## 1
Amino acid sequence: MYSNALEKLRERGFVEWSSHDKELAEHFISDMVTGYIGFDPSADSLHVGNLVAIMGLAWLQRLGHKPIAIAGGGTGRIGDPSGKSSERNLLSEEIINHNVSCIEKQLRHFLNFDCGENSAMLLNNNDWLKKELFIEFLRDTGKYFSVSFLINREYVRSRVFDADKSITYTELSYILLQAFDFNHLYNEYGCTLQMGGNDQQVNILAGMDLARKKSGGQCYGITFPLLLNSHGEKFGKSESGAVYLSQDKTSIYKFYQFWVNVDDNDLEKLYKLFTFREIDEINELLNEHSKNPHLREAQKTLAWEMTCRVHGEEAAKRVRDASAVLFGEIDIRDVDKELLDTLSAEIPFVETCEEINTNLTDILVLSSACSSKGEAKRKIKEGGVYLNGIKITEEGTQLSSTDLLDGGYIQIRVGKKDFRLVKFISKS
C-alpha cells in the first residue's frame, strides 16, 4: 500500500482542484503514481512563485510516488497563452536550451534522482515534439480537438474577439502540444497524473481527454492555488521584482531577507507548502514564535531552511551572519573579511585611496551617507552617526588604523537603517 498523496497535499494546502477525487485517492493508495509538472523555460531561472509546483513534486516523491519534471524546451518555443493578453516574444532554440539547462540544475536541489524505483526524472519535451511531422500531428492529434473547445477557453475568448489583442494560430496550438505531452508520458512512462498552477486546469483536462480518446488511458489532474500573501498580492515579489532562485538574478542575501520579511500571517501557509516539517511541529514552532513575534524567529528559521535548500548551508550561514551584523546581533568588529565582502555586495559600498587618518565628516560625504560636510556635522551632533556600531558624538572625529576592520573596511550608519561600507585600499 502506498501513501494517499492527495490527502497529504490537500492537508498542506496544495490542492485547489482535483479530478476524480475518489478514484485518484484509490489510485494513490494502490499504485506508485507517476506524476509530472511542466516548467516554462522563458527565463534562465525559476523564481519563488514556482516553489509551490516544485514542492508539489517533492512531496509526491517523499510520499513514495514518482515525479517527472518536464523542462518545456519544445512548448517553450511557442509559449503558453494562458493568462496573457498579448503574444510572447519567441525565443531562439539556443536561448531556450540554455534556460532549460539552468532550470534542470535548480530542480536537483529539491528532487532525488537516484533513490531507486521512485527516482525523479527530468525530461525535455523538445526530445519528442521535434520528431513530430506537421501533417501527422494534425491527423493523429488535432482531430481530437474541436474548434469550439479551443475558442471557448476564457483566455482565448477574451482575445479572439478583441481586434487590438487577437490570438495567433501558433498560440492556439499550445494546448494541443501540452495535451500531446501528457499522452506521450502516459504511453512511455505510465504517467497518469499532471499537476500545475490553477491556470493550467484546462490544459490538464485536454491532456486527460486526449489520453483517454487516443490511448484508452485513465488520467488525473491536480491544480495548485495561486499563492497570495496576507495583503492579497502575488507571493514571490519584492520591491525590486521577482525573487529568483539564481543568485545571478537575486543575491543570496536578498533571497534570505525575503523570507525574513514575510508577514506573520503568512507563516503557517508557507511552512506547510515549502518545508517538510510535520503539521504538529509547525504548530509548535509558530506557538513559540507567537510569544515573542518581534524577534522574528519563525521567519529566520524559514529563511535558513529555504536558503540552505536553494543555495547550500555554507552560503546560508554566510548571509545569515551578514544579516545578524546589520541588525546588531553580531558585533561587526568581530567578523572576518569574507563576511564583510558579502556585505559590500548588499549595502552601499565605496572604495577609497584616501589615507585612513581623515575626518569622519569627509567619509560621510564620500560614501554619500551625507550630501555635505555641514549635514554630516549636524547628523553627528544629533547622535545619528555610528562608526563600526559605536555612536560618534564628536564632530571632529578623526579615523585611525585602529578603526579598520578586517580587509581594510569601516562601517558607518546614519540613522537606524542607512548602512554603508567603505574600504581603504593602498595607493600602490
## 2
Amino acid sequence: MLLILFINMVTKIFPKDFIFGTAVASYQVEGGIYNNDWTIWERNKNSKCQEICAEACKHYELVDEDIKLLKKLGIKAFRFSIEWSRVEPHKNKFDQNAIEHYVKKTQKLIEYNIEPIITFHHFTTPEWVFKEGSWANPKVVEYFNNYVDMMMNSLPKEITYFNTINEPGIFTFFGYFSTNKFPPGIANEDVFIKSSSNVINAHKEALQTIKKHNNNSKVGMTHALQEWEDADENELKKYIKYHLEDKFLEASLDDDFIGLQTYTIVRIPQSILLKVFTPVLLNIKFIRKYILPRILQIFAGRNGRIDKDTRITKMGYEYRPQAVLYNLKRIHNMYPNKDIFITENGIATDNDDERIEFVSDVLKDIHKYVTDNEKVIGYLYWSLLDNFEWDLGYQMNFGLVEIDKSTYERKPHKSAKWFGAISNTNIFSY
C-alpha cells in the first residue's frame, strides 16, 4: 500500500534560491508590551477585543529557543517585526537594550543560516505617537523615519530583505474607517485619507533610509490583497478595493518587490437595496464622510458575502487557496517586471491535516506560476506560533507550532515538520 502511495506522489522542485520560511509579528508573539496603541485599545470600551495580549507566546524571552526550533525544523527564513514602542518608548529616547535585543536576534538567525526578514511596522505604534494623533498626524512620517534610521545604524549589513510597513490598507481601514476593530476607531473618511497618505509618505522615506544604510537591501511594503469576485463590478466594490488595496499597491512603484499577503475572497452582497443606495453613499459628502465608514466596516478585509454551504476557516474566511494565484496574476499585470514575495499566507484551523491540505493547494499554484513566470521569490507561512490575532484574541490557531498557555511549551504540529522539510530542500511532494 505504501509503495502504491509513493508511486502515485507528484514531486515539484522549486528553484534553489526560492525562499521558504515562516513569519511572526512582535506584538502577537513577544508579550510584555504595554506602551503602544494596542495596549490602550484592548481596554477601550468601544473596541471588540475579546481578550488582552499580555504575555503572548513570550517570544521576546524565548527567542533563542524559537530560533533553535526553526533550525531543528529546517526552516530557512524567518520574518519578524521590530516593536517600535520597545525601541523608542518615549519621543527621541531610544532604548539601547531593546535595539541590542533585535540585533542579537538577527545575528543568531544569520549564524544558524536562517534568512532574517525585517518588518519595521506591523500594526502597533508607540503610545506617545498615538497621543500625538498617530498616523493622522503628518509628523508621523518624520517620527517613523527616525526610528528606522536608528535601527539601520545597528542592524547587520548581511540582511537583504526589509518590509517597511505591514498591510497599510488593513490598519488604516480598520482604524480610521471603522469604530471598533483597530485603534483609534475613528470612522471618518477625511481622517482615513490623511492617515493613508501619511503611511505612503512614511514608506517612501523609510525605503530611502534603508537604502542609504544598506546598498544591497531589497525593500518593499507588504500588501493584504483579497481575491475579488470579478462578476460584480459595481461602484461600491471599486471604492472599497481602491481604498483598501489599490492605492497602496500604486505607492509601491519604486519598491524592489511586492509583498503579497492573501487569505480569501471578498464577495460583495448582491442586495438590490445596497445597489440602489450606493450613489447616495458615495456622492453625498456628509454621508460618505461619516455614515459610509460605519456601513463599510463590515467589509474591511474580513467579511463579505459567505453562502451558508461555503467551506470556511476558523477566522470565518472562505476557504480559498486560489486567492494566492489570483493575486500573483493581478500583481504581475500591474508590475510585470517586479519580483513578488509571498510574505504571509496560511490558515486558522484546529485540524492540522487541513493546514497541510491548504498549503499544498497553494504551493501547487505557486509552482506552476513560478515555472511560467520566475517573478515569485519566496513563500512565508503565517505563522510559526499560535499567536494573538488582534481583536480576535488567541483562538485562531494559525501556528505550525502550538503554544501551551500555562507553560509556554512549544509543541510542533505534524505540519511544522512537513513544511520544514519543504523549506530545507525546496522539494514539495503531494
## 3
Amino acid sequence: MECVTRRIRNNKTNKFKMDNLALIESFGDFKDEKGISKIDLMAIIEDSLKTLLRKRYDSDDHFDVIVNPDKGDFQIFLNKTIVEDEMSEDDDLEIEISEAKKIDSTFEVGEEYTQEIPVAQLGRRNILTLKQILATKLQEHNNAMLYEQFRDRIGEVAVGEVHHIRHKHVILLDDEGNEFILPKENQIPSDFFRKGDNVRAVIESVDFKGSKPQIIVSRTAPKFLEKLLELEIPEIQDGTIILKKVVRIPGEKAKIAVDAYDDRIDPVGACVGVKGSRIHGVVRELKNENIDVIQWSKNPEIMVKRALGNVTINKIEINEEGNYALVYTPVEEISKVIGKQGQNIRLASWLSGYEIDVYREKQADDDVELSEFNDEIEEWIINEFKKVGLETAKSVIDKDTEALVNMTDLEEETIEEVKRILKEEFED
C-alpha cells in the first residue's frame, strides 16, 4: 500500500492573522453579552467557515478549519493531491509535481500537500458573507439557548417590566432584556398596565415563531395562583402542606383544595392565616379575586360538600360511572349553591371532579314560589296568576281549572299544562 504523506506549507503572515483577529473581534461584544462559551463559539466559527467554503468551492471535504478562540484567530487549510505534470483536472484540489517541488524538493506524486488559505484571499465579498453567516449562526445559537432556558422554566413565575402595550397583548422585558408576551386573554379582566409597571405572571409556553422563540406568560392560569401561594405560604413551599388542586375564574372567584401530611396541622388555617393575613397578598395580586380554601378529602360526598362551601345540603348522590353528583338542598339555599352567574357550582364541579346538579329538597307541606318555575313556564303566564293573587304552586294546583279560566286570561290548555308542571314538583 502506497504511503501518503502530508506536508504543510506555512505561508501565514501577521497581516493575515490580523485579518482573522479583526473578524473574530467584530463579534466580541456579542460573545461577551450573551455569554457564549469558548467551545460553542469555536463550533459556530468553524461551521460558519465551512458554510462559506461550500458556497465558494461547492464542498468543504478538502478543507480543514482550526479555530483558536483564546488567541482570537483561526486557520483554513486546503488539502491538495500531488499529481503528475499535465494531469491536474482541478487546480483547487490538485497540484502538479513540478509546482510542488518548487515548494519542497522532497515532494512525490500521491502525497498530500496542505496549503493555508488566508481569509484575505477569500475576497472582500466573501469576508462580508462570512460575517453575515457568523452573525446568523450566533443569533440561531442564542435563540436555541433562550428556548432551552425558558422551556425548563415553564410553570415558574416571571417578573417583567411593561415595555409596549398593544391592543391584543402586552410586551414585558425582564432584567436581562428577554421579551415576554402577555396576551389579552391571559390578563385578568381588571388588569390595567402602564409603561414601566412591574408585572408578575407564570410562564405558560415557549414556542418558535419563525426563527425566534416566543415566550407566552399568563396571569389567568391556575398555575399562577398555585405559584403565588407557594411564594406567600412557607408550608406549601417546604411541602408540609400540599396543594391538591387549584381552580379559578380569573378576577372573580377561585377554590383551592389543600391537605397536610401531619394530622396535627390545619392546612386551611395555615393557608388563610389570622384574618386572612397570609392570603391577602395573593388576593391583592389577583385584583381581589375571592379565594375559598378547603381541605381535601378522598370521600367524594365530603369533597363535593366542602367544594360547594358554606351551604345547607340535605343529601348528595354520587354516580361514579357517570361522574356526576346530585345535590339536594332546601329551596332557599339554591341560589347560594349556584352562586353569582353560576360561579360557585362551576368551580365546585371543577374542584371535586364531578359534574354537580342541584335539586330542591322539600317536605310534604312545602310550597314553592311560582317564580321558581321560570325555566319551564313563560314569565307572562306566571304574571297572569300573580295578578289574581296566586303566588305559589299549590295555590294554583288547589283551584279548579274552570275557576282559573274565569279568573285569568289564560286558555284551558295552558292552565292544564301549567298544573302538570307544578304537580311534577311535588311527586316523589
## 4
Amino acid sequence: MNMKRILAPIIILLLVLGWGNIIGGNAEKYKSYTEHMKNAKTLESKEIYIDAIDQYKKALEYTKNKLPVQEAMLDDYLKLKKYNDFEKQGNAILESYNYPKNVAKKMTDYYIDRKQTVNALKLVNAYLEKNAEDEDFLALQGKLRGSCLEVYFGSDDIKMYGNGFYVFVDDNKQGLLKSDGSDKIAAVYDKIYPYGKEPEYAPVCKDNDWYYIDKNGYKKLALDFNVESLGVFGNNLAPYCSEGKYSYIDANAKKASKNTYDFASSFAGKRAAVKNNGKWAIIKSDFSQVTDYIYDDVVLDECGFATAQNVYIAKLDGKYHIFGLDGKAKDGEGFDEAKAFVSDEPTAVKKDGKWGFANKKGEVELMTDYSDVKPFSNGFAAVYDGKKWGYINKNNTVVIDFEFNEAGNFNNSGVAVVRKPGIKFIQLVK
C-alpha cells in the first residue's frame, strides 16, 4: 500500500483533532468565540469594561483554552476597581492553572500597590513553592521580606535583648518584655538583664540588692553573700562580682569556684572568657583553661557572652580572629575590628578601613562602603550611611531605607528596635 495513502488520513485526523482542541470541534462554536472576543476588545477600546467582561464570559462557553480569556477579565475587573472580583478571579486562576507567572505577578503588584505587603509576600511564597528557581520572584521575595511594620511604641529606652526578652527603661527603672509587648516584667528594678538559660532566671538589682527572678517576676534565687553585680546564667553557672573580683556561682547560688578574675563572662557552649592582668583567656565550665592568657581583647555580646554562637572573637597580635571552642583560629590574617555574632549568620568585621561581613569559618562574604554596620540576623544587617541607619540583605541591596537614628538587630521573630527618633519596634513582614 502506498505510504502517502496511509499517512494522508492520519494527517487529516490530527488536523481535525487539533482544530477541535481550539474550538471544541465545531466551526460554529469557533465563530461564536471569535465574535465575542472581538466584541470584548472593541468595548475595551471604548473603556466599556463592564460589557467587555460580559462578552468574555460568553466567549468562555466556546473554548477549551480559557486562561487567556480569564486573564483578560482579570484586567478589566482591576480597571473597574471591582477589587473583590479581581481577587476572586485571580485566586481562581492561580489555583486552576498552577500559578501562572504572569497572573501571579499581576496579583503581587496589586497587593503591593494597595500596601498589602503581607498578602503580597504570601502569594510570592506560594508561587516559589512551585517555582523555586524563579529569579524574578526570589528577588521580589527578598524585597518584600525587607518590608516592615511598626509593632508598637516602646518605652523610654531599650537596653538589650536576650533569650526572647528586651530590657526596657521607664522613669529610670528597668523591666523586661517580649517583642510583641507581652509577658511584661514591670520596670521596678535599678538593673535587670534578660533571662539566662540553664536555669531561666533573670539577674536583677533593687535597692542595691542583687538576686534572680523567674519569668513570673517572683524572687527565685538569692545569695548568702554580698555582691556588686550578677551575670546571666548559662550552663548552670553565672558570673558575679564581689569586692572588685569576679568568679562564678552555681544554679543554687553557691560559690562554684575558688578562682577569681578581673572580669568573667557568662558561660555558653561550656566556655567563658576571663580576664586577668590585662589579658584574656578562654576557660571550660570546670574552670580549666582552654587557652593561656594571650588575648588583648575578647568580644562580648550585649548580654555578656563570648561564646553564645559556639565560636568566639578575640584580639591576638593586633588583629581580631574568629576561634572555635577548641581555641583554634578559623581565619587567616584577621580583622582590624569585629563585632559579636548574634546568630549563625555573618557578623560585622572591619578590614583595610572597610566594614564587611564574615561567617563563622572566618570567610569574608561581603564588603561594603558603609561607615558602620551590624551583624546579620534574620537575613538582614543594619548599616549606617553616615547620616541614618537602614538595612541591607546578603546581596548588599538596601531593603529598608535609611530613616533611623539607631537600628538594632532583628531577632528570631523578625523584630528589631529602632529610634526614629523615639524608640519603636519594627516587625519584618512574613
